[in-house]
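Example S7 (structure tokens).
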């Protein structure tokens, strides 16, 4: 049976890629972290191609959270307006005719 491939976390990959870019040395950094140089090269290419999307995803995620929160608050305001309307109608209906 063959060896099962190692699974590395995203944080580990990021740390290794950043160090390899800073030092501009693939082989030495790969050896230090026990990663095959070809694998590190693939990670670097992927990072360079998709690196900008990291910041886009975070911005989109935050915007979506704000949209959800706004929708919740608008719904809450709508409910409160209905409650006020019902209370005003109740008070108008049951208010004594002399205004007390």
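Recovered sequence:
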């Amino acid at each position: 049976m063959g060896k099962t491939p190692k699974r590395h976390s995203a944080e580990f990959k990021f740390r290794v890629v950043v160090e390899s870019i800073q030092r501009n040395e693939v082989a030495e950094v790969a050896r230090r972290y026990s990663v095959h140089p070809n694998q590190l090269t693939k990670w670097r290419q992927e990072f360079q191609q998709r690196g900008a999307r990291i910041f886009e995803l975070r911005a989109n995620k935050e915007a979506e959270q704000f949209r959800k929160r706004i929708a919740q608050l608008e719904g809450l305001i709508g409910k409160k307006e209905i409650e006020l309307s019902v209370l005003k109608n109740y008070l108008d209906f049951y208010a004594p005719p002399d205004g007390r």
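Notes on this example. The mean pLDDT is 86.
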